[in-house]
Design a protein that fits this description.
Number of helices: 3
CATH superfamily: START domain
Helix content: 25-40%
CATH architecture: 2-Layer Sandwich
Number of strands: 8
Shape: globular
CATH class: Alpha Beta
């Protein structure tokens, strides 16, 4: 598994994280699992599941409402959401066996510059699954979290949140691998 994290307070992207894992399954088998977002509770660090609320599930334009949970010790000093909350995501790319991407929506339903994605590449008799997260402009949530922070606190938050994201992506891929291979 490889992990790369780039974080920055002054420049976009605010977050750009990538992790990958080899999986003993075809790209089509991997895609069938990762595009089934209601199952994400089986592998995600925060999303415990959810439901499709509009559109044809797992197709471009469909909207997924996820139920999430975060423990109190995650970047404990920062005013991030704790406990259980919901989010909405709009599917922006869906190519079976190749790529699946979604954009987080704000409270008005507008897509934000916060993109989660999976890319699948054939690798011998299996596949390489690459998980990406990129946030360019600050989302509604990040603006709220950092509103009262000074520059040093923002820098610390972005560094710690970037490390959290990198760990989350790596853990997610290991769980997906286990779900598919077992």
């Amino acid at each position: 598994m490889s992990i790369m994290t780039v974080t920055s307070v002054e420049n976009t992207p605010l977050f750009q994280v990538r992790a990958e894992v080899a999986i003993s399954a075809t790209p089509e088998q991997v895609y069938a699992v990762i595009s089934d977002l209601p199952r994400s509770g089986e592998w995600s660090e925060e999303c415990t599941g959810g439901e499709w609320v509009s559109g044809t599930p797992a197709t471009v334009g469909a909207v997924f409402r996820g139920v999430n949970e975060r423990s109190p010790d995650v970047v404990a000093w920062a005013p991030v959401v704790r406990g259980t909350w919901t989010t909405e995501a709009e599917i922006i790319a869906a190519q079976p066996g190749r790529t699946f991407r979604w954009s987080m929506r704000d409270s008005t339903g507008k897509r934000q510059d916060s993109i989660w994605s999976f890319d699948i590449e054939p690798a011998g008799s299996g596949a390489t699954l690459v998980h990406h997260f990129r946030m360019g402009e600050p989302t509604e949530g990040i603006k709220g979290i950092t509103a009262e922070m000074n520059a040093d606190q923002k820098r610390q938050f972005f560094d710690e949140w970037g490390a959290k994201l990198a760990g989350d992506l790596a853990a997610t891929l290991e769980r997906i691998k286990a779900v598919i291979e077992n």
